Amino acid sequence: MTNAPLANAEQVLAEAGPRDRFDGIISAVELTDAKPHPLPYLIRLELLDGQPEAASRFEDSRAGLRSVVSAGL
After folding, report:
1. CA dihedral 42, 32, 70, 65 (to 10 degrees)
2. What is the pLDDT of residues 12-71, one digit of tens each?
3. 2 pairs with which residues across the strands?
């Protein structure tokens, strides 16, 4: 999940090699609210039918960390 455009995320993952390890990518341009809002994480949990306490997360920005905390992860 990223606040960057989807094409950017696809390119970075394709060049880095791990693209096949991701079922999907959520881009902020697809949502009504981007990070630091919790919506990106809440949508991802819903799509994966997951529970917040069992979720893994990795963030590289303050906005992302605020999103994680606000989503209850």
Report:
1. 100
2. 888 887 777 777 788 888 899 999 999 999 998 888 888 887 788 889 899 999 999 999
3. 27
Residue type, 31: L
Question: What pTM was computed for the model?
Answer: 0.77
Helix (H) or strand (E) holding 30: none
| Angstrom distances, CA of residue 9 to CA of 14, 58, 70 | 8, 15, 23
Nearest-CA neighbor of 68 among 60, 28, 57? 57
Q: Measured between alpha carbons, how far is 10 from 40 in angstroms, rounded to an integer? A: 17
Amino acid at 65: L
Q: Which DSSP helix (H) or strand (E) runs through 68?
A: helix 62-70
| Burial tier of 60 (Cβ tally within 10 Å: 0-12, 13-18, 19+) | exposed
